[in-house]
Amino acid sequence: MAAKVLTEAGARVVMLEAGVNWDPVKDSAMFAWPYDSPRRGGGTPKRPWGEFGAWDGGFSIDGEPYTTGQGSNFQWFRTRMLGGRTNHWGRISLRFGPRDFQRKSLDGLGDDWPISYDDVKPYYDQVDRLVGLFGTVEGLPNEPDGIFQPPPKPRCWEQLIKRASDRLDITCIPNRLSILTQPLGDRPACHYCGQCFRGCATHSNFSSPSVLLPPAMATGRLTIITDAMAREVTVDAAGLATGVAYIDKNTGRENHVQARIVVLAASACESARILLNSKSTQFPQGLANSSGVVGKYLSDTTGGGVTAFVPELMDQIPHNEDGVGGAHLYMPWVLDNSTLDFPRGYHIEIGGGLNMPGAGFGGGIQRFSGYDDGREVGGYGAKLKADYRRFYGATVSFAGRGEMIPNEDCYCEIDPNTVDKFGIPVLRFHWKWSDHEHNQVKHMQETFRGIIAEMGATPMSTMPSQSRGYGISTGGSIIHELGVTRMGNDPKSSVLNSHCQAHDVKNLFVADGGPFVSQADKNPTWTILALSWRTSDFIVAERNRGAL
């Protein structure tokens, strides 16, 4: 986004990409069938969620380790390809609401943002118009409506979930995904192949290589250098940024790009790593870190989930359930936390459809988990085929995605004893969920199981115990890490000002998830895009008036 806005304003931009080039037209496997692969499309260590997935990287990258502090458990997902995670994310495109920017004022926890929803709303609107998303105008509190295309109709299994949710008075509405249901510019509407995580060769869903980089390249002012591993931001005697030193991953040679202005958008933790490794006599704690806050207040979305067996979905008549790569419905948070034992909310993402269940088959005689009439299922030959048909599509899943309150026990720092294969010091993570998050995930699990019971279905797992944190996700595993270069008005307690400009270095900016002050119960991508556009507009204005 920063490259698009800055090049279109007249700036010459060099983008350093730590991974390989990626072209969704040439490199996507969206039309490949599972039987085209020896693994039938199954996962590999490099592509854990499907061999044809559009990602290069993962929770573990050869030669690029990270470490965790004693007693901590944290997973860090990194993508090494042009466009990064925008190639394979779920495309749930939610705005933060007015309350999300002022949580401390409302419940006394965490910190308020130095900006309000009204400051970001014009940029949300611009992102909606540029990228495109579907949804419906609902007028819900703290769930801002956007500029929507029509949503696709719910599938059979989704309608069953909605009926049960309606009976329980749980709000269930059309999802808000950045996938086109109507043409937008030269991008056609989605043709419902359902393979969004593989990269979209028709550019019908949002990714940076489909929507943001082509217009930036068309200006003739963008240079992209791939396989460029950023090591540090360099500074001059006056303490201003002069560019970025990086390692050419193909040759091992260190190079340097000079720049009047440096924008870090490497993802929150990677940007913090670059700053912490950018030490000099002027910045002995790392660049822009006079506050000591770089790397601090790391947060991730909370997660909890359950899968259920639904007898009503057995023996399905073959039918067309085409749709986008993701659920057509979701459940936003609309409850009052003041009546609950946790302070922040969550939304619910659903799954299901004509996919094989994850348990009960695989050869031999087995019992299908949740099927309780005592009959054996599976086996071989005709009986196996018949049971496949009986159970095909008879499961649904629920996943909660909730707001974590940033705390001082969650942070990343440079590990003094470990470097990657390029000789760059790596990050060490420290992590701790609080009772707020544990109680929230307990509520998730109870809500899921209430809906499942209302559907006449059976959970395929027992209720997680308190000793297991009620099944809370591992820190980092939801891949929504935010914070670590937070914005604020006070340079003593924040890294950036309200325009994501470093307090200590006026020509240094951060345009990823790092500036976030709080997590919210929404996926962060839409806010990252809006803030990046807002920051880029500020850079242009400051440059034009000679302040940069």
Descriptive tags:
548 residues, alpha+beta, FAD/NAD(P)-binding domain, 10 helices
Would you spell out the secondary-structure blueprint of this structure?
Layout: H1 2-8, E1 13-16, H2 24-27, E2 57-58, E3 67-68, E4 78-79, H3 103-107, H4 117-131, H5 156-167, E5 173-174, H6 208-218, E6 222-225, E7 228-235, E8 241-248, E9 254-258, E10 262-264, H7 268-277, E11 302-309, E12 329-331, E13 346-352, E14 365-366, E15 377-378, H8 381-391, E16 395-402, E17 411-419, E18 425-430, H9 435-454, E19 458-459, E20 508-510, H10 525-544
Parallel strand pairs: 1-6, 3-18, 10-20
Antiparallel strand pairs: 2-4, 5-12, 7-8, 8-9, 11-16, 11-19, 12-13, 13-16, 14-15, 17-18
Helix pairs in contact: 1-6, 4-10
Structure, explained:
With 548 residues, this protein is α+β, with helices and mostly antiparallel strands. The chain has one domain (2-33, 42-355, 393-544): FAD/NAD(P)-binding domain (3-Layer(bba) Sandwich). The chain contains ten helices and 20 strands. Strand 7 (228-235) and strand 8 (241-248) form a beta hairpin. Helix 1 (2-8) packs parallel to helix 6. The two termini are 20 Å apart. Residues 357-367 have low confidence and may be disordered.
